[in-house]
Amino acid sequence: MKFDRRSFLALAGMSSLVGMGRRGKLWAASPFPQQKAARLRKGNTLALVNPAGATAHRVEIDILVESMNALGLKVKLGEHVMSRYGYLAGGDKERAADVMDQFADDSVDGILAMRGGWGCARILPRLDFDIIRQNPKVLVGYSDVTALLVAVYAKTGLVTFHGPLGIGPWNSFSVDYFKRILFQGEAATLSNPSVIGDNLTQVADRVRTIHGGKARGKLLGGNLTVLTALMGSEFLPEWEGSILFLEDIEEAVYRVDRMLTQLKLAGVLDRISGFVFGKCTRCLPGQSYGSLTLEQVFDDHIAPLQIPAWQGAMIGHVAHKFTVPVGLDAEIDADEGTIQLLEGAVR
Fold it and tell me: Which of 25, 186, 306, 332 is 20 to 30 A removed from 63 (C-alpha atoms)?
């Protein structure tokens, strides 16, 4: 289920953003020392939670459990994983309790969100970030789970992971990066598939350079709509010197334009050292008289920053996706369309 999150966009600026220009010293994106969770190993227990939208079909959980078992992992289901309160997977108190229970449970080695939708931002005030900081664990998801990923990083320094949701799909491309990042702790290079197939050149998953060059910084970002909805809150990290990565789904081009404008007015875009846009799935022009293209929007907002920037990464609401560590140092190459992790994301 996709919930219309546009009603929740905050209009406040980022009053907490202070610091040096993006070409100066790189600031810590979280006021807390960086923490890394222990890597996943065969025999570990992965907890399944639903911090946002409800899961309607038990078979989705059955498929996920079998998929995780195929990776050698045991699965623990959160108490309220099948609960429902309207479009939410139970009330705010229940969903927050499920998240906290997994961080407090010594038998749990990692936490995977079942789905996105809407709801993670609602539970942020109910989380005990001291407990999370004292019990660092792998935390994975994307879409609306962006709110949980960036808040946990901002409040604890724990590197989190913008990667597959429980509802999958768990194909070979996604599983390969999931294993390399979370099991092997590899300082991997994230690069798009280069499949020509029955064509004269590559057609799918192409990279477009917005502004060339290389940049280093902490990877921060996620779903564009969710991030802009958190503007003005205490649950966002500092952006100074970071590499901002974004994705979205079913947003008209003018709304992407509006949200990037908000990031500009809030001072975020002027503080980043690099920019990566993944996929904007089914982001159509809408019913207006005319429309800019996404490329024109990026040329208007990102190209003038004159920082390394590219679009087309395997990040977002697509079947084949990267696992991207939130809060980890990386280098992007905007000409090649790659993200090079500068260290392992787990210990």
Answer: 186
Residue 110 confidence (pLDDT) above 80: yes
What contacts 20, CB < 8 A, 6 or more positions away? 27, 240
The answer to whether residues 333 and 327 touch, using CB atoms and an 8 Å cutoff, is no
Task: Let me know: does 94 contact 145? Beta carbons within 8 Å.
Answer: no
268 close to 230: Cβ distance less than 8 angstroms:
no
User: 211: which strand partners?
Assistant: 309
Q: Using 50, 70 and 90 to split pLDDT, how confident is the model at 29?
A: confident
Structure tokens at 266: 């809030």
What does the pLDDT read at residue 286?
Answer: 66
The two tokens of residue 46 are 């992965």
CA Rg, the chain, in Å? Answer: 19
Distance (Å, rounded) from C-alpha 85 to C-alpha 176? 35
CA 347 to chain centre: 20
DSSP 189-207: EEE------SSSS--SS--
In whole angstroms, what separates CA 211 from the centre of its chain? Answer: 23
Q: Which distant-in-sequence residues (6+ apart) come within 8 Å of 112 by Cβ?
A: 46, 47, 48, 49, 64, 68, 140, 141, 164, 165, 166
Give catalytic residue positions: 143, 247, 317
- The answer to whether the beta carbons of residues 41 and 259 sit under 8 Å apart is no
Mean pLDDT estimate for the chain? 91
For tokens 């995780």, what's the residue? 68
Taking CA atoms, 17 is separated from 23, 232, 249, in Å, by 16, 10, 27
CB 47 within 8 A of CB 102: yes
Rounded mean pLDDT, 324-329: 98
Residue 79 C-alpha from the chain's centroid: 25
